[in-house]
């Protein structure tokens, strides 16, 4: 199977491409930056150029597209008007895919599309959606438009809703990365009280889950998460213990964000039963992989 992956050199993309390659797929990655992996073909295509994108797909003729690309700076992505450009680009790519006869299209959504329940888990067909920011509004709009477009075409459509990720090489300002760097540098690691519950999944598991979804026949929304809710305080306490720097952790030193939802946890029934993927990386092993990365690269990021 020939699979095109947009955003292939990003945080999730490298793990996705590696998992697809191990499964025997021919992988063609589209990225703005140089891709370090030699097991795949890379291409630079301006996805905002509809004609160039259509010509590329007509030439390559992929069976499947996994669309990760959604490029907005970390500091502004919740509210940036650039989300509208990403929405337009996604719709244009989907149109070209349908016209080119692509067999399968996997779009990437977010758990922020959901109207989070205070009790229980987010289920793809039970939990409703609710707008929170321009980012998740545009993501959900993408899903709705693509679902309608592909419904009248021969392209099967799946929508992966990503929950909270962590892992080596993540943005240094994210939770696990920022606490890891402070601990390893011998600095006090400041954190909120961490009373909220979140579903954190190692990025390698996320990449493998997306690969399994891409190579399956499953359609519709599918949660990509661990299915386990953990308090933020428990995660960072465990991280400090694994690093053997518990004395540096400062729970409650930062204020809790106003309006922060109490609980965001995935129901991964579809991922396990229909896609056939079960997350494999235990929390302590995942946290150790992050610490190992930041021991090596912490001063370079």
In words, what does this structure look like?
This protein is an alpha/beta fold and 301 residues long. It folds into two domains: 2-164 and 200-224, 3-Layer(aba) Sandwich (Rossmann fold); 168-199 and 229-263 and 281-300, UDP-galactose 4-epimerase, domain 1 (Alpha-Beta Complex), CATH 3.90.25. Helix content is 38%, strand content 18%. It has a seven-stranded parallel β-sheet with strand order 3-2-1-4-5-6-11, sandwiched between helices. A three-stranded mixed β-sheet has the order 12-9-14. Helix 1 links the parallel strand 1 (2-6) and strand 2. Helix 3 runs parallel beside helix 4, helix 5 (175-184) packs parallel to helix 7 (232-242) and helix 5 (175-184) packs across helix 9. The longest helix is centred in the N-terminal third of the chain and has 19 residues, at 82-100. The mean pLDDT is 95.
CATH level 3 topology of the largest domain: Rossmann fold
Shape: globular
Helical content stands at: 25-40%
Largest sheet: 7 strands, parallel
Q: What spatial order of strands do you see in the largest sheet? A: 3-2-1-4-5-6-11
Instruction: Indicate the CATH architecture of the largest domain.
Output: 3-Layer(aba) Sandwich
C-alpha Rg (nearest Å)? 19 Å
Average pLDDT value? Answer: 95
Question: Any key phrases for this structure?
Answer:
single chain, 301 residues, Rossmann fold, UDP-galactose 4-epimerase, domain 1, 2 domains, seven-stranded parallel β-sheet, 9 helices
């Amino acid at each position: 199977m020939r699979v095109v992956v947009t955003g292939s050199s990003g945080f999730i993309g490298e793990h996705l491409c590696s998992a697809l390659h191990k499964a025997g797929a021919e992988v063609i990655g589209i990225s703005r930056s140089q891709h370090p992996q030699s097991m795949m073909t890379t291409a630079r295509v301006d996805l905002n150029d509809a004609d160039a994108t259509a010509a590329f797909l007509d030439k390559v003729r992929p069976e499947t597209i996994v669309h990760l690309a959604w490029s907005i700076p970390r500091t502004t992505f919740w509210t940036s008007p650039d989300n509208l450009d990403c929405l337009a680009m996604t719709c244009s790519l989907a149109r070209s895919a349908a016209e080119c006869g692509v067999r399968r299209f996997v779009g990437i959504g977010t758990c922020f599309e959901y109207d989070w329940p205070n009790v229980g888990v987010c289920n793809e067909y039970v939990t409703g959606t609710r707008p929170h920011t321009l980012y998740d509004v545009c993501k959900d709009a993408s899903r709705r438009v693509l679902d309608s477009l592909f419904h009248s075409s021969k392209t099967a459509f799946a929508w992966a809703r990503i929950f909270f990720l962590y892992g080596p090489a993540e943005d240094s300002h994210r939770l696990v990365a920022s606490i890891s760097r402070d601990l390893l540098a011998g600095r006090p690691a400041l954190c909120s009280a961490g009373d909220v519950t979140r579903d954190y999944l190692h990025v390698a598991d996320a990449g493998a889950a997306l690969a399994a979804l891409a190579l399956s026949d499953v359609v519709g929304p599918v949660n990509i998460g661990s299915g386990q809710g953990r308090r933020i305080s428990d995660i960072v306490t465990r991280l400090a213990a694994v690093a053997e720097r518990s004395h540096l952790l400062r729970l409650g030193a930062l204020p809790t964000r106003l309006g922060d939802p109490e609980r965001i946890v995935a129901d991964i029934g579809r991922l396990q039963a229909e896609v056939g993927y079960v997350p494999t990386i235990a929390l302590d092993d995942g946290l150790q992989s992050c610490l190992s990365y930041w021991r090596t690269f912490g001063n370079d990021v």
